[in-house]
Amino acid sequence: MSAPGGAGQRLFIGGEWVEPDDGHYEVIDPATEEVVGLAPEASRAQVHAAAAAAREAFSSWSRTGPEERAAILDRAAALVVRDREAHTEIARAESGATTATARGMQVAVAAARFARYAKGALEPVERALPPQISAAGPMGRGGVLGAVAVRRPVGVVTCITSYNNPWANPAGKVAPALAMGNTVVVKPAPQDPLSVYRMAAALEEAGAPPGTVNVVTGSAPAVGEAAVDSEDVDMVSFTGSTAVGQRIAEVCGRGMKRQLMELGGKGAALVFDDADIGSAVRGIGTTFSFYSGQICTAPTRVIAQRGVYEQLVDKLAGLARALRVGDPRDPATVVGPVISAAHRDRVEAYVELGRKEGARLVAGGGRPAFDKGFYVAPTLFADCTKDMRVVREEIFGPVVVVIPFDDEEEGVALADDGEYGLIDYVWSDDVARAFRVAGRLRAGGVGVNTVGRNMEAPFGGFKRSGVGRDVGSYALYAYSELQSVVWPG
């Protein structure tokens, strides 16, 4: 039996479902504050055992043919789809996402990523290089040297995932890592880890050999620390806060471990006078509705040209007030809870800070009147300045700040005035200007008149928003090392 029932979830180590050394902790539904299930507390020894199991499995898995790896990933995708309603329910319950989001943006995206990297396993890994003519010398006789650059698996990859998407985020790491022939230790966020165990069960049923996928959890940072510092780990793929990413990078630096970091964001949305205001409002409004603002790619920092400033503020305020906040199981709900009471308190503290800093509160700012649940009202601040903490720091909630600007130079300067550079946005009907401005922004991605994502485009950040790129074939590059092979022609 892959995943056990009511006694509490077990760890998944070396192909076995293992009782945790340190007991269990409660996973709480953010909407009801009820217990969803019991997650295992791994000991440091168990985390290192998971990494050792991955190391043992690597030698055979890395030599497995790409067709076999592709078949396993394809079967995993089909199994996730087969059980999607049960997966949707557990994802909704532990993450607080609306049912539609849990089904369409979490479980469905995870299945799509397994299917995508089933194809990715079959992508060529060799690139022929031009032959080089060498003259006779100390290195030997003259001749022609051929060469090829080959992508090889890195080894054992620790995947540390974020709480805002307990299906798509882990799948986006595990699937390309396995496709390239790596083995993985997955350490999910402590708030909503149960979905990742369901993912592991699907991979087990799909035929992933023992040790290729391991899952360990814990409510304290020690579990993640052990998953990073194990000598069996060759690479760490992390999604989360910049502060935690910096600590992980220090450990990786001491061990010369590869890193892939997708960290914080404070996305700037530059809205010019000639923009389609309706399109801009709909895009920026996703900060309120999409995961209740708990997403690093959100356009939380609006920089509006003065000709449309008041109109944009008015329309954003109207949208914020109109969005229905409530039970994520209700199909009419648009904004569900944030992940925990602690995070709700953090977001509310930022709202109070915005007031004290002198920002004009236009919408929201209070706690919705529910008996239970960790709810935050969609909140809009106007008349902000670049030095305010609510403008500079990642709040990770349904809070949008608006700053006016006069001309293009000032707008670009405001957009780039910060430590983050994940995804920015430009709204303008002048396409030439929009692309010119995009080229000047220090961000890993720029949306022009859209918040949509092309899922083959490289994803990652400039500055303190991360290191490396993934998504599409770029993820296959991220989870591989280049080896040069040279021979006499």
TrEMBL record:
Transmembrane segments: none annotated. One of its GO terms (molecular function) is oxidoreductase activity, acting on the aldehyde or oxo group of donors, NAD or NADP as acceptor. The keyword Oxidoreductase applies. Residues 17-485 form the Aldehyde dehydrogenase domain. Keywords: Oxidoreductase. The keyword Repressor does not apply. It comes from the Bacteria. InterPro entries: Ald_DH/histidinol_DH, Ald_DH_C, Ald_DH_N, Aldehyde_DH_dom. Belongs to the aldehyde dehydrogenase family. PANTHER family: ALDEHYDE DEHYDROGENASE-RELATED. This is Aldehyde dehydrogenase. It comes from Streptomyces pristinaespiralis (strain ATCC 25486 / DSM 40338 / CBS 914.69 / JCM 4507 / KCC S-0507 / NBRC 13074 / NRRL 2958 / 5647). The lineage of its organism: Bacteria, Bacillati, Actinomycetota, Actinomycetes, Kitasatosporales.
